[in-house]
Amino acid sequence: MGCQCLPGVIQCPGRTGEERGMEVAAAMFSSIGQYPVRLDDKFRFALPSAIRHNFETGAVLIARQGYVALHTAGQWEEFVLNLRAKLVDGTLSRMHFNAILAGAAPISLDAQGRTVLPPALRAHLNCDRDLVLTGLHDFFGINVPSNQPDGDPSVKEAALAILEESAM
Length: 168
What we know:
Strand content: 15-25%
Order of helices and strands: HEEHEEHHEEHEEH
Oligomer: single chain
Helix content: 25-40%
Largest sheet: 6 strands, antiparallel
CATH superfamily: Transcriptional regulator MraZ domain
């Protein structure tokens, strides 16, 4: 019986270490970069074609501190499994577990690769029309341009210095 995992799932029973490694590499490289997007009159935004394929089987939006996270269906499943483990071992209360899941919004893409940013998440961002999708290693963050991680010149300079110190 073959593995029936969703795309983007990193830990998949039945896969070899090499296959899981390739899955991790694909997840890391698909969640990098910055993409400006704009909400239309129906509060939809189009995912850039470069990353759209990652979300064809669905996605989940959830408010995080200062931004909205965009997870693939597989990443979301992995996230919920990790949360459930914390619930079981007592490091996360049922109240917090439920609050986290209640704030999530499953989304799908239309034929043009667009999805709606729900009202509660628009309010969380305090946004008008312009947004930026930023790769955050294993998921994308959605934010207003003024709140981007590299918006502060001192942060950008420090990041460039770190990059130079660890040059490939």
